[in-house]
Amino acid sequence: MSLNRDRGFFVAGGESRPRNSFSFFSAHSDKFERGFIMNTLKKLSNFFGQNMAVIVIAVAALALFAPQSVSFIKTSYVNTLLGIVMFGMGLTLKPGDFKVVFSRPKDVILGCIAQFTVMPLLAFGLTKAFNLPPELAIGVILVGTCPGGTSSNVMTYLSKGDVALSVGMTAVSTVLAPFLTPVLTYIYAGARVDVNMASMFLSIVKVVIVPIAAGFIINHFFFAVTQQIVEILPLISTTAIVAIVAAVVSANASKILTSGLLIVAVVICHNVLGYLLGFSIGKALKLDGSKCRAISIEVGMQNSGLATSLAATHFAQYPLATIPGAVFSVWHNISGAVLANFYARSAEKSENSAAR
After folding, report:
1. Which tens digit of pLDDT belongs to each residue from 300-323?
2. Calpha distance 272→132 (Å, rounded)
3. Is 148 helix (H, G, I), strand (E, B) or coil?
4. Helix or strand or coil: residue 17?
5. Which of 35, 80, 219, 350 is at a distance of 20 to 30 A from 10, taking alpha carbons?
6. Domain containing residue 174: CATH number
7. 277 within a domain of the structure (yes/no)
């Protein structure tokens, strides 16, 4: 078969047939539409990623003051929504991301020890200092015993921190979560409420480990396809996180309005003290600035979506237990962005001083 370009005919078997111009233009039209849709989604994804904190605050405010407007998002959806976020995290992981675990095990181990000691202890101390009722205390403790947050890697990058260490810490702390989160929750909250460690273990495996593993495997075998999807992940992840916040806040709007300031104060203290102690531990261990910034952000930013999921699933008799996780989701995206900007400027000043 050959193409007679002058006449615009396909020539086959000595015969000339007119090209199907409709099919030709239809194919190009479909390709253009697909490209247009993908470009639009990428732009939306970039917008959502860059303005996540503002979007989360806006939706939280809407859910708080007009709960009926988002009441269609039920708290029963939280596990599924978190699973979507975790699956997205898995799609971004590659085998190379785990190299730091083997090439620099000391840094990762120290960071994870800080993660699972500082935040649970702070949570327990704050519940005592603020004399929180059991239903709020369990929510705060769950935030403290969960692994590092999924947005910590981005914040570490923006802060000019050690991104490889950040990714390694997030990965390892997430893998350890099914074992450590139930045990630590039992240690710090077992005296106040019943904690079923086996049930919590299974929940974390189902909602966190399985989706991440699925995303990781798919990314490994279908890398060319997933690279196109990865570009719109901020849109998907932000939407899921916003929906989690909307569900929890709208379901507890009246209770938040009566005890909201107390919850916000505890969450801010928990988060900010986590940043400070994480950085201080890095300095005490004589780590360089980039590692200190990474550990600071990893320790201070928690997977608060998991805390909300566990509270809704295992402590349903305490509706307020879901609120600290939801408030933390809003707050740590604000504080993380501010801290990343501060760290980045400090790093630039140090670099400029060293260059002189």
Report:
1. 999 999 999 999 999 989 989 999
2. 19
3. strand
4. strand
5. 35
6. 1.20.1530.20
7. yes
